[in-house]
Amino acid sequence: MHRLVSIALLFLGASLAASLFLPDSLELRQLMQRYQDELEPNDTKADAPLRTRRAIRWSDREEILQLHNKLRGEVYPTASNMEYMVWDDELEKSATYWAEQCQWEHGPKDLLMSIGQNLAVHWGRYRSPAYHVQAWYDEVKDYTYPYPHECNPWCPERCSGPMCTHYTQLVWATTNRVGCAVHTCPRMNVWGEIWENAIYLVCNYSPKGNWIGEAPYQHGRPCSQCPPSYGGGCRDNLCYKGEPERHESPDMNEVEKPQEPVQPRTTPTKPQSKPSLPQKPANANPSSTKTTRTTYLAQNIKCETKMRDKCKGAACNRYNCPGNCLNKKGKVWGTLYYDVQSSICRAAIHYGIIDNNGGLVDVTRKDNFPFFVKATKNGVESFSKYKPGNAFTVSRVEDCYTTVAEICPFKASTSHCPRVFCPANCINEPSYWAPVVGSNIYGDGSSICRAALHAGVIKASGGYVDLLALDKRKSYTGTLKNGIQSESKTNTEGGSFRVFAVRE
Prior knowledge:
By secondary structure, the chain is α+β, with helices and mostly antiparallel strands.
């Protein structure tokens, strides 16, 4: 009798473990469904299957998924049991919920019991989601794979850098589903610094990885130790059993609308049977106040804003300067290299990056410059400082992704757009990174430079473009011109614009 009780308890323990951690467990699905319900409070069961609202573009999802599988298939040493990864809509829903909280920490806690999670954030110049996925994988340079003979029975943890857990989760062999979301946070606390218009990427994984004492995968000939459920299938060094083909439809690209704040959760935290690798906590609790989603990727600043005030321990990227800074009082120290107490915008005018109409400026910080030399350039007089100090340089914004919505959105007869410089070869940029909507008159979310190429006002070698911001249009018609296929759209939000050649 005692033996029967022990066996019963053993099966009960196995059942509880499955309900907590197996990828298709009822507990996990119920948690996922709750986040989905909170994200779609107005949907009914009758119409829910007809409408799929997204917080990430289809092209970004495909890029994230393809890069995950590419990197997983190229691990070294080779993996014998690495599973092919597929997109999971419920993981995407839970990632959307957390991204919209704008909290730079892992969460929510009750869901972390059953999923893995990688986070990334940036502001300033454009970064595709794949940029961050690659950065997670690049932690491999600090990671040493534990071979079987080193695991007795637990494998040693060998990470020589600040963190390797993004990499290990990405290449965890049994993690075969991923879902991600991208959200623009108007104000986000990142390690104690407030970042405005921060672009927040959240990727959720199932089954979760990063179990302490385990290797992320088994070393051996690719696909030689795949689970039986794959039936011997192998694709690009990954255990593969095929997946239903997914086609994009118009309703798949509706961006998730801001929701009302949800009530605090009451789900109790369950004990975890295996400890997960520790993650670095945030230093402060960032604000989770919800505001309207914005597409701006540059920091809007005043003419007097000093570099010291905007680049204090945070990444220095891109700033949007207003017009008429020539007539403001912000001081500038130096030439070419500017002291961090200098006005960013007036230093940019001094160097010749922008004129008195304002515009975008890229900034790079330089530490411990020995001295600063005065000069009068472009109507701005700078001062000398003959002692060392932190410095910065300014450079012209030269990318193919800048949009009118970022730099001069239409505002009833008061919009003034700065002259934009387009680099060479924007024609080769993919349309999902630098889209063009319309013909002659373009949607303000279009790439300025690729719209200029489409309109024929610049050539593939690049050049300057003048802009006229206009009110929104009911519809845009796509055409193929000068090697660029533009898109057709109706009922779009935002304004529009025209492009003009700069006559020397």
